[in-house]
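[job 0412] stage=complex_fold ligand=orotidine-5'-monophosphate status=START
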Amino acid sequence: MTSQTFDSFILKHQIIGFFDEAITLKSGRESHFYVNWRQATNDAFLLNQLTDFIRDFLLQNNLAFDSLIGVPEGASKTAVITAMKIAQASPTFAKGSHIIPMGRAKPKQHGAPQDKYFIGQPKGRTVVLEDTITTGLSLVEFLHSLQSSGVEVVAALGLTDRMETRDDGRSVAQYVHDEFDGRIQYLTMSDATKLLPQAIRSEQPSDGVVSALLQEFERYGVKPLDLEAL
Ligand SMILES: O=C(O)c1cc(=O)[nH]c(=O)n1[C@@H]1O[C@H](COP(=O)(O)O)[C@@H](O)[C@H]1O
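[job 0412] stage=complex_fold status=DONE, emitting C-alpha cells
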C-alpha cells in the first residue's frame, strides 16, 4: 500500500465532499469540506478494503503492538474488523492469543469496573485509531481516558488529518506530542492538503467554494492550500 493508492481510494469513493454553505464541525469551526468516513465504513465491500489498507499501513510502519482500538464510536467498527484481520493473520492465532477491544461512548453506570468504559479493554501495547482528525480533541480525550484506565498507548493513527492548527497555533501532531511527552507516536494515513487539490480537480466545486477553502487554510491550515500542486 502507498499513500497514493490510499488517496485514490478516498477520491474514488468520494469520502471528501464540498458544501456551498459552510457546515459546522464538532469543534464549532465552519468548513466548506467534510471528510466523511461513514461513506466507507457503512459499506461492507469498502470497509473490507479500508481495513486491508489499515492493516498494511500498520505492518509497513513496523509498529509493535498488541491491541487496536477505535475512538468511540466513529472508528469502533473499523478498528474491530482490522483487529480481527490482524489476529487471524498472526501465526500465534489461537484461543487467548488476541483480544478485540472496543470503547464505550458513554460510560456504563452499573456492572464490573472493567466494563465501565470498554466492551473488552485493550491489553498490552495499544494503537488507537481515529477516522478524521481536525483539532485532535476527540482523539486526545480518548487517549487520556485510556491512560487513566492504565492502558499503555504506543501510537495514535488517523485515517485523515485535516491539517488544521488548533486555536493555540499547534498542529495536532505537536499537540499529541506535548500532551504525552512524546511517548505516543502520531501517524496519519492521509492529509487534506494533498487530497484537496485532487478532489477539487475531480469534483469541480464552485469558485466560491474554492476561494473559501483557500481562506480556511490561510486561517487554520498547518500550511496554505497549494492548488498549483494539481
Ligand atoms: O467535525 C469535524 O471536525 C469533522 C470533520 C470532518 O471533515 N470529518 C469528520 O468526521 N469530523 C468529525 O470530527 C471529529 C474530529 O474532530 P476533532 O475532535 O476536532 O479532531 C471526528 O471524530 C469526526 O466525528
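The chain has one domain: 3-220.
[job 0412] exit 0
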